Amino acid sequence: MRIKLINPNTTRRMTEAMGRCAREVAAPGTEVIAVNPTMGPPSIEGYYDEALATPGLLAEVAAGEREGCDGYVIACFGDPGLYAARELARGPVIGIAEAAMHAASVLAPGFSVVTTLARTCGMAWHLAERYGMKRFCRNVRATDVAVLDLDKPGSAARRIILDECRRALDEDGSDAIVLGCAGMAELCAEIEDALGAPVIEGVTAAVKWTEALVALRLSTAKRGDYARPLAKRYDGALASFSPTGDDAAAERGAGQAARDATDQHAALAQDDAGVTRVNA
Ligand code: 5HY
Question: pTM of the entire structure?
Answer without folding.
Answer: 0.90
